[in-house]
Write a structure and sequence with these properties.
Number of strands: 9
Shape: globular
Strand order of the largest sheet: 4-7-6-5-8-9
Radius of gyration: 28 Å
Length: about 450
Protein backbone atom coordinates (compact mmCIF):
# COMPACT_ATOMS: atom_id res chain seq x y z
CA UNK A 1 0.00 0.00 0.00
CA UNK A 2 2.83 2.38 0.88
CA UNK A 3 4.56 1.70 -2.45
CA UNK A 4 1.29 2.44 -4.22
CA UNK A 5 1.04 5.88 -2.61
CA UNK A 6 4.71 6.61 -3.30
CA UNK A 7 4.30 5.66 -6.94
CA UNK A 8 1.21 7.86 -7.21
CA UNK A 9 3.05 10.79 -5.63
CA UNK A 10 6.00 10.37 -8.00
CA UNK A 11 3.68 10.03 -10.99
CA UNK A 12 1.82 13.19 -10.02
CA UNK A 13 5.05 15.14 -9.39
CA UNK A 14 6.53 14.14 -12.73
CA UNK A 15 3.47 15.29 -14.63
CA UNK A 16 3.23 18.54 -12.67
CA UNK A 17 6.85 19.23 -13.67
CA UNK A 18 6.04 18.25 -17.23
CA UNK A 19 3.10 20.69 -17.45
CA UNK A 20 5.13 23.47 -15.83
CA UNK A 21 7.87 23.04 -18.44
CA UNK A 22 5.30 22.74 -21.23
CA UNK A 23 3.57 26.01 -20.31
CA UNK A 24 6.84 27.93 -19.95
CA UNK A 25 8.33 26.63 -23.20
CA UNK A 26 5.11 27.11 -25.17
CA UNK A 27 4.80 30.68 -23.90
CA UNK A 28 8.47 31.50 -24.41
CA UNK A 29 8.55 30.00 -27.90
CA UNK A 30 5.30 31.70 -28.91
CA UNK A 31 6.48 35.09 -27.64
CA UNK A 32 9.70 34.77 -29.64
CA UNK A 33 7.75 33.71 -32.73
CA UNK A 34 5.34 36.61 -32.20
CA UNK A 35 8.19 39.14 -32.19
CA UNK A 36 11.21 37.59 -33.95
CA UNK A 37 12.77 41.01 -34.59
CA UNK A 38 12.80 41.65 -30.85
CA UNK A 39 14.76 38.41 -30.42
CA UNK A 40 17.09 39.46 -33.24
CA UNK A 41 17.86 42.74 -31.44
CA UNK A 42 18.49 40.84 -28.19
CA UNK A 43 20.83 38.38 -29.93
CA UNK A 44 22.70 41.36 -31.38
CA UNK A 45 23.06 42.75 -27.84
CA UNK A 46 24.65 39.47 -26.75
CA UNK A 47 27.02 39.54 -29.71
CA UNK A 48 28.07 43.08 -28.78
CA UNK A 49 28.86 41.96 -25.22
CA UNK A 50 30.78 38.90 -26.43
CA UNK A 51 32.81 40.89 -28.95
CA UNK A 52 31.07 39.29 -31.94
CA UNK A 53 29.53 42.45 -33.36
CA UNK A 54 30.76 41.44 -36.83
CA UNK A 55 27.96 38.85 -36.90
CA UNK A 56 25.22 41.42 -36.31
CA UNK A 57 25.01 42.52 -39.92
CA UNK A 58 24.53 39.01 -41.31
CA UNK A 59 21.82 36.36 -41.20
CA UNK A 60 23.06 34.70 -37.99
CA UNK A 61 20.87 36.70 -35.53
CA UNK A 62 17.81 35.97 -37.66
CA UNK A 63 18.64 32.27 -37.84
CA UNK A 64 19.15 32.05 -34.08
CA UNK A 65 15.88 33.90 -33.40
CA UNK A 66 13.99 31.57 -35.74
CA UNK A 67 15.55 28.40 -34.28
CA UNK A 68 14.90 29.46 -30.67
CA UNK A 69 11.22 30.12 -31.35
CA UNK A 70 10.71 26.81 -33.15
CA UNK A 71 12.73 24.68 -30.70
CA UNK A 72 11.11 26.11 -27.56
CA UNK A 73 7.55 25.92 -28.89
CA UNK A 74 8.07 22.41 -30.26
CA UNK A 75 9.54 21.18 -26.96
CA UNK A 76 6.59 22.69 -25.11
CA UNK A 77 4.15 21.01 -27.48
CA UNK A 78 5.85 17.63 -27.05
CA UNK A 79 5.70 17.98 -23.27
CA UNK A 80 2.09 19.16 -23.30
CA UNK A 81 0.79 16.25 -25.37
CA UNK A 82 3.24 13.73 -23.90
CA UNK A 83 4.68 12.73 -27.29
CA UNK A 84 8.30 11.88 -28.09
CA UNK A 85 8.82 11.62 -24.34
CA UNK A 86 12.48 10.62 -24.41
CA UNK A 87 13.44 13.23 -27.02
CA UNK A 88 11.49 15.97 -25.22
CA UNK A 89 13.04 15.13 -21.84
CA UNK A 90 16.60 15.04 -23.17
CA UNK A 91 16.17 18.24 -25.21
CA UNK A 92 14.63 20.08 -22.28
CA UNK A 93 17.43 19.04 -19.91
CA UNK A 94 20.19 20.02 -22.35
CA UNK A 95 18.49 23.36 -22.98
CA UNK A 96 18.28 24.16 -19.27
CA UNK A 97 21.85 22.98 -18.65
CA UNK A 98 22.94 25.62 -21.15
CA UNK A 99 20.60 28.44 -20.13
CA UNK A 100 21.00 28.23 -16.35
CA UNK A 101 24.78 28.96 -16.25
CA UNK A 102 24.26 31.64 -18.92
CA UNK A 103 21.66 33.45 -16.83
CA UNK A 104 23.87 33.11 -13.74
CA UNK A 105 26.60 34.95 -15.64
CA UNK A 106 24.04 37.59 -16.67
CA UNK A 107 22.94 38.03 -13.06
CA UNK A 108 26.49 38.38 -11.75
CA UNK A 109 28.05 40.45 -14.55
CA UNK A 110 24.84 42.30 -15.57
CA UNK A 111 26.03 43.19 -19.10
CA UNK A 112 22.41 43.28 -20.31
CA UNK A 113 19.52 44.48 -18.18
CA UNK A 114 17.04 41.90 -19.49
CA UNK A 115 17.84 38.45 -20.86
CA UNK A 116 14.87 38.62 -23.24
CA UNK A 117 13.56 35.11 -22.52
CA UNK A 118 9.93 36.31 -22.59
CA UNK A 119 10.45 39.32 -24.87
CA UNK A 120 8.45 42.41 -23.96
CA UNK A 121 5.54 40.32 -22.65
CA UNK A 122 7.12 39.60 -19.25
CA UNK A 123 10.31 41.35 -18.20
CA UNK A 124 12.30 39.76 -15.39
CA UNK A 125 15.44 40.96 -13.68
CA UNK A 126 18.56 38.94 -14.38
CA UNK A 127 18.46 37.40 -10.91
CA UNK A 128 14.76 36.65 -11.32
CA UNK A 129 15.52 34.92 -14.61
CA UNK A 130 18.29 32.86 -13.01
CA UNK A 131 16.10 31.57 -10.17
CA UNK A 132 13.32 30.86 -12.64
CA UNK A 133 15.78 28.73 -14.62
CA UNK A 134 16.91 26.92 -11.46
CA UNK A 135 13.31 25.81 -10.90
CA UNK A 136 12.97 24.77 -14.54
CA UNK A 137 16.27 22.87 -14.40
CA UNK A 138 15.09 20.88 -11.38
CA UNK A 139 11.80 20.16 -13.14
CA UNK A 140 13.62 19.05 -16.30
CA UNK A 141 15.79 16.67 -14.26
CA UNK A 142 12.68 15.09 -12.75
CA UNK A 143 11.07 14.67 -16.19
CA UNK A 144 14.31 13.29 -17.66
CA UNK A 145 14.74 10.68 -14.90
CA UNK A 146 11.09 9.56 -14.94
CA UNK A 147 10.04 10.37 -18.52
CA UNK A 148 8.18 7.06 -18.76
CA UNK A 149 5.71 8.36 -16.16
CA UNK A 150 4.66 11.19 -18.50
CA UNK A 151 1.17 10.21 -19.63
CA UNK A 152 0.18 10.83 -23.23
CA UNK A 153 -2.76 12.99 -24.26
CA UNK A 154 -2.94 11.45 -27.75
CA UNK A 155 -2.61 7.91 -29.04
CA UNK A 156 0.64 6.52 -30.43
CA UNK A 157 -0.78 6.79 -33.93
CA UNK A 158 -1.31 10.54 -33.46
CA UNK A 159 2.29 11.24 -32.39
CA UNK A 160 3.60 12.06 -35.84
CA UNK A 161 0.65 14.32 -36.65
CA UNK A 162 0.90 16.44 -33.49
CA UNK A 163 4.70 16.62 -33.74
CA UNK A 164 4.67 17.69 -37.37
CA UNK A 165 1.80 20.13 -37.01
CA UNK A 166 3.31 21.91 -33.99
CA UNK A 167 6.58 22.53 -35.83
CA UNK A 168 4.90 23.63 -39.07
CA UNK A 169 2.53 25.95 -37.19
CA UNK A 170 5.24 27.83 -35.29
CA UNK A 171 7.45 27.96 -38.39
CA UNK A 172 4.70 29.60 -40.45
CA UNK A 173 3.69 31.90 -37.59
CA UNK A 174 7.28 33.10 -37.21
CA UNK A 175 7.49 33.70 -40.96
CA UNK A 176 4.24 35.68 -40.88
CA UNK A 177 5.28 37.97 -38.01
CA UNK A 178 8.76 38.43 -39.46
CA UNK A 179 7.26 39.48 -42.79
CA UNK A 180 4.54 41.60 -41.23
CA UNK A 181 4.27 42.72 -37.60
CA UNK A 182 3.74 41.06 -34.19
CA UNK A 183 0.17 39.92 -33.64
CA UNK A 184 0.48 40.83 -29.97
CA UNK A 185 2.31 44.11 -29.33
CA UNK A 186 3.53 44.45 -25.74
CA UNK A 187 5.54 47.62 -26.31
CA UNK A 188 4.47 51.12 -25.24
CA UNK A 189 3.77 52.09 -28.89
CA UNK A 190 1.10 49.46 -29.50
CA UNK A 191 -2.02 50.26 -31.48
CA UNK A 192 -4.28 52.26 -29.20
CA UNK A 193 -1.43 53.77 -27.16
CA UNK A 194 -1.67 57.47 -26.37
CA UNK A 195 1.91 58.70 -26.74
CA UNK A 196 1.27 62.03 -25.03
CA UNK A 197 -0.29 60.31 -22.01
CA UNK A 198 2.55 57.78 -21.95
CA UNK A 199 5.09 60.58 -21.62
CA UNK A 200 3.39 62.25 -18.66
CA UNK A 201 4.35 61.77 -15.02
CA UNK A 202 1.33 61.48 -12.68
CA UNK A 203 1.03 64.14 -10.04
CA UNK A 204 2.68 63.18 -6.76
CA UNK A 205 5.00 60.57 -8.25
CA UNK A 206 8.67 60.81 -7.34
CA UNK A 207 11.15 61.16 -10.16
CA UNK A 208 14.17 58.83 -10.41
CA UNK A 209 17.45 60.36 -9.30
CA UNK A 210 20.49 59.82 -11.51
CA UNK A 211 24.14 60.57 -10.84
CA UNK A 212 26.93 61.02 -13.34
CA UNK A 213 30.20 59.30 -12.50
CA UNK A 214 33.37 60.75 -14.09
CA UNK A 215 36.41 58.51 -14.38
CA UNK A 216 39.83 60.22 -14.43
CA UNK A 217 43.34 58.82 -14.55
CA UNK A 218 46.57 60.07 -12.96
CA UNK A 219 49.94 58.30 -12.81
CA UNK A 220 48.32 55.11 -14.06
CA UNK A 221 45.67 55.15 -11.34
CA UNK A 222 41.98 55.55 -12.19
CA UNK A 223 39.50 57.16 -9.82
CA UNK A 224 35.80 57.94 -9.96
CA UNK A 225 34.45 61.41 -9.16
CA UNK A 226 31.03 63.05 -8.95
CA UNK A 227 29.99 66.67 -9.37
CA UNK A 228 30.40 67.14 -5.62
CA UNK A 229 34.04 66.05 -5.45
CA UNK A 230 35.26 66.98 -8.92
CA UNK A 231 39.11 67.11 -9.07
CA UNK A 232 40.64 70.59 -9.18
CA UNK A 233 44.01 69.19 -10.16
CA UNK A 234 44.48 69.65 -13.91
CA UNK A 235 46.94 66.74 -14.06
CA UNK A 236 44.00 64.30 -13.93
CA UNK A 237 43.06 63.07 -17.42
CA UNK A 238 39.45 62.35 -18.33
CA UNK A 239 38.75 58.71 -19.28
CA UNK A 240 34.97 58.24 -19.41
CA UNK A 241 31.67 59.10 -17.79
CA UNK A 242 28.54 57.11 -17.05
CA UNK A 243 25.14 57.93 -15.61
CA UNK A 244 23.82 55.56 -12.95
CA UNK A 245 20.47 55.31 -11.18
CA UNK A 246 20.90 56.55 -7.63
CA UNK A 247 17.31 56.42 -6.44
CA UNK A 248 14.36 54.68 -8.08
CA UNK A 249 11.29 56.64 -9.01
CA UNK A 250 8.42 56.66 -11.47
CA UNK A 251 9.50 56.29 -15.07
CA UNK A 252 6.89 56.92 -17.76
CA UNK A 253 6.53 54.09 -20.28
CA UNK A 254 7.47 56.51 -23.07
CA UNK A 255 10.48 58.69 -22.30
CA UNK A 256 12.57 58.94 -25.47
CA UNK A 257 9.99 60.05 -28.04
CA UNK A 258 11.64 63.16 -29.45
CA UNK A 259 11.59 64.12 -33.14
CA UNK A 260 14.06 66.64 -34.57
CA UNK A 261 13.50 68.11 -38.03
CA UNK A 262 16.41 67.64 -40.42
CA UNK A 263 15.49 70.79 -42.27
CA UNK A 264 15.99 73.34 -39.47
CA UNK A 265 16.98 71.29 -36.40
CA UNK A 266 13.81 72.24 -34.49
CA UNK A 267 11.97 69.85 -32.17
CA UNK A 268 8.74 68.91 -33.97
CA UNK A 269 7.47 66.39 -31.39
CA UNK A 270 4.53 68.55 -30.33
CA UNK A 271 3.64 69.29 -33.95
CA UNK A 272 3.45 65.60 -34.79
CA UNK A 273 1.56 64.59 -31.64
CA UNK A 274 -0.97 67.41 -32.01
CA UNK A 275 -1.67 66.71 -35.69
CA UNK A 276 -5.13 65.38 -36.47
CA UNK A 277 -3.43 62.70 -38.58
CA UNK A 278 0.29 62.08 -38.97
CA UNK A 279 2.06 59.43 -41.03
CA UNK A 280 5.48 58.42 -39.73
CA UNK A 281 7.67 56.39 -42.06
CA UNK A 282 9.97 54.74 -39.52
CA UNK A 283 13.41 53.50 -40.55
CA UNK A 284 16.15 53.03 -37.93
CA UNK A 285 18.74 52.68 -40.72
CA UNK A 286 17.94 53.84 -44.23
CA UNK A 287 21.10 52.18 -45.50
CA UNK A 288 19.58 48.77 -44.62
CA UNK A 289 15.95 49.59 -45.41
CA UNK A 290 13.92 47.54 -47.87
CA UNK A 291 13.25 49.77 -50.89
CA UNK A 292 10.80 47.43 -52.64
CA UNK A 293 7.83 49.62 -51.67
CA UNK A 294 9.35 53.00 -52.46
CA UNK A 295 6.75 53.81 -55.15
CA UNK A 296 3.93 53.02 -52.72
CA UNK A 297 5.57 55.19 -50.06
CA UNK A 298 5.73 58.11 -52.48
CA UNK A 299 2.03 57.60 -53.29
CA UNK A 300 1.14 57.69 -49.57
CA UNK A 301 3.10 60.94 -49.24
CA UNK A 302 1.21 62.43 -52.19
CA UNK A 303 -2.03 61.31 -50.54
CA UNK A 304 -0.95 63.09 -47.32
CA UNK A 305 -0.25 66.29 -49.23
CA UNK A 306 -3.63 66.15 -50.97
CA UNK A 307 -5.48 65.87 -47.66
CA UNK A 308 -3.25 68.08 -45.52
CA UNK A 309 -1.88 65.33 -43.29
CA UNK A 310 1.52 65.44 -41.60
CA UNK A 311 4.14 63.12 -43.07
CA UNK A 312 7.74 62.57 -41.92
CA UNK A 313 10.34 59.91 -42.51
CA UNK A 314 11.89 59.40 -39.06
CA UNK A 315 15.34 57.82 -38.95
CA UNK A 316 18.61 57.70 -37.03
CA UNK A 317 20.68 57.55 -40.22
CA UNK A 318 23.28 60.15 -41.16
CA UNK A 319 22.69 63.01 -43.59
CA UNK A 320 24.75 61.12 -46.19
CA UNK A 321 22.49 58.05 -45.88
CA UNK A 322 19.40 60.24 -46.20
CA UNK A 323 20.80 61.86 -49.36
CA UNK A 324 21.52 58.46 -50.89
CA UNK A 325 17.97 57.32 -50.08
CA UNK A 326 16.51 60.45 -51.67
CA UNK A 327 18.61 60.04 -54.81
CA UNK A 328 17.75 56.36 -55.17
CA UNK A 329 14.02 56.47 -54.35
CA UNK A 330 13.12 59.97 -55.50
CA UNK A 331 11.77 60.75 -52.03
CA UNK A 332 10.41 64.28 -51.67
CA UNK A 333 8.97 63.88 -48.16
CA UNK A 334 10.64 65.63 -45.19
CA UNK A 335 13.03 63.79 -42.89
CA UNK A 336 13.44 63.91 -39.13
CA UNK A 337 15.76 62.30 -36.60
CA UNK A 338 14.96 60.11 -33.60
CA UNK A 339 16.87 57.76 -31.30
CA UNK A 340 17.64 54.41 -32.92
CA UNK A 341 16.40 52.28 -30.01
CA UNK A 342 13.11 54.19 -29.90
CA UNK A 343 12.59 53.64 -33.62
CA UNK A 344 13.23 49.90 -33.25
CA UNK A 345 10.73 49.85 -30.39
CA UNK A 346 8.00 51.72 -32.26
CA UNK A 347 7.72 49.22 -35.12
CA UNK A 348 9.43 45.97 -36.09
CA UNK A 349 9.91 46.77 -39.75
CA UNK A 350 12.52 48.71 -41.71
CA UNK A 351 10.83 50.70 -43.04
CA UNK A 352 7.47 50.62 -41.31
CA UNK A 353 4.54 53.02 -41.38
CA UNK A 354 2.72 54.37 -38.31
CA UNK A 355 -0.48 56.41 -38.38
CA UNK A 356 -1.14 58.75 -35.44
CA UNK A 357 -4.36 60.57 -34.65
CA UNK A 358 -3.84 63.36 -32.13
CA UNK A 359 -0.91 61.42 -30.69
CA UNK A 360 -2.72 58.07 -30.51
CA UNK A 361 -1.36 55.11 -32.50
CA UNK A 362 -4.18 54.17 -34.88
CA UNK A 363 -2.51 51.79 -37.31
CA UNK A 364 0.83 50.14 -38.09
CA UNK A 365 1.98 48.62 -41.36
CA UNK A 366 5.08 46.64 -42.23
CA UNK A 367 6.93 47.13 -45.49
CA UNK A 368 4.92 44.24 -46.95
CA UNK A 369 1.49 45.66 -46.11
CA UNK A 370 1.52 49.41 -46.77
CA UNK A 371 -1.92 50.81 -47.69
CA UNK A 372 -2.46 51.27 -51.41
CA UNK A 373 -4.63 53.47 -53.63
CA UNK A 374 -7.58 51.08 -53.24
CA UNK A 375 -7.55 51.62 -49.47
CA UNK A 376 -6.78 55.35 -49.50
CA UNK A 377 -9.86 56.37 -51.44
CA UNK A 378 -10.86 59.40 -49.39
CA UNK A 379 -10.21 61.36 -46.19
CA UNK A 380 -9.01 59.20 -43.31
CA UNK A 381 -11.96 60.14 -41.10
CA UNK A 382 -14.20 58.37 -43.64
CA UNK A 383 -12.05 55.24 -43.91
CA UNK A 384 -11.78 52.25 -41.60
CA UNK A 385 -7.98 52.60 -41.45
CA UNK A 386 -8.46 56.09 -40.05
CA UNK A 387 -10.19 54.64 -36.99
CA UNK A 388 -8.81 52.61 -34.11
CA UNK A 389 -8.85 48.85 -34.60
CA UNK A 390 -11.52 47.54 -32.23
CA UNK A 391 -10.14 44.00 -31.94
CA UNK A 392 -9.33 43.32 -28.30
CA UNK A 393 -6.38 41.30 -27.10
CA UNK A 394 -8.71 38.49 -25.99
CA UNK A 395 -10.20 38.27 -29.46
CA UNK A 396 -6.67 37.83 -30.78
CA UNK A 397 -5.99 35.14 -28.16
CA UNK A 398 -9.11 33.23 -29.19
CA UNK A 399 -8.16 33.61 -32.83
CA UNK A 400 -4.65 32.23 -32.28
CA UNK A 401 -6.00 29.30 -30.25
CA UNK A 402 -8.43 28.57 -33.05
CA UNK A 403 -5.61 28.67 -35.62
CA UNK A 404 -3.54 26.22 -33.57
CA UNK A 405 -6.11 23.79 -32.16
CA UNK A 406 -8.70 24.02 -34.97
CA UNK A 407 -6.62 22.48 -37.80
CA UNK A 408 -4.95 20.12 -35.31
CA UNK A 409 -8.30 18.70 -34.19
CA UNK A 410 -9.44 18.53 -37.83
CA UNK A 411 -6.37 16.56 -38.89
CA UNK A 412 -6.72 14.22 -35.93
CA UNK A 413 -10.37 13.54 -36.81
CA UNK A 414 -9.46 12.93 -40.47
CA UNK A 415 -6.69 10.55 -39.41
CA UNK A 416 -9.07 8.66 -37.09
CA UNK A 417 -11.65 8.46 -39.86
CA UNK A 418 -9.06 7.13 -42.30
CA UNK A 419 -7.91 4.51 -39.77
CA UNK A 420 -11.51 3.45 -39.22
CA UNK A 421 -12.13 3.12 -42.97
CA UNK A 422 -8.86 1.21 -43.38
CA UNK A 423 -9.86 -1.25 -40.64
CA UNK A 424 -13.26 -1.84 -42.24
CA UNK A 425 -11.70 -2.45 -45.67
CA UNK A 426 -9.19 -4.85 -44.15
CA UNK A 427 -11.95 -6.68 -42.32
CA UNK A 428 -13.82 -7.52 -45.52
CA UNK A 429 -10.82 -8.30 -47.74
CA UNK A 430 -11.04 -11.99 -48.82
CA UNK A 431 -8.31 -14.10 -47.23
CA UNK A 432 -7.76 -11.77 -44.24
CA UNK A 433 -7.68 -13.26 -40.75
CA UNK A 434 -10.89 -11.53 -39.77
CA UNK A 435 -12.74 -12.84 -42.87
CA UNK A 436 -11.43 -16.39 -42.31
CA UNK A 437 -12.54 -16.31 -38.70
CA UNK A 438 -16.00 -15.14 -39.69
CA UNK A 439 -16.30 -18.05 -42.14
CA UNK A 440 -15.36 -20.54 -39.44
CA UNK A 441 -17.98 -19.13 -37.17
Amino acid sequence: MENKYIHKAVYTSVNLCRFLLAIVFLFSGFVKANDPMGTVYKVQDYFEVWGLSGWNSGFVPYLIAWIMAIVEFTMGSYLLFGIRRRLAAVSCLLFMLFMTPLTLWLAVANPISDCGCFGDAVQLSNWGTFWKNVVLLLASIVVYVRNRDVFKMVTDKMDWLVAMYSTVFIFLFTYFTLSHLPVFDFRPYHVGADIKAGMEIPEGEKLPVYETIFTYEKDGVRKDFTIDNFPNDSTWKFVESQTVLKQKGYEPPIKDFSIISNEDGFDITEEVLNSEYAFLLVSPWLENADDSSMDLINEIYDYSLDHGYTFYCVTSSSDEAISRWQDYTGAEYPFATMDEITLKTIIRSNPGLVLLKNGVVIRKWSNFSFPNEYQLTGPLEELSIGRLDENTIWEKVYEMMAWFFGPLIFFILVDLLWLNIHRKRKKFVPGSKQTSTDKKN
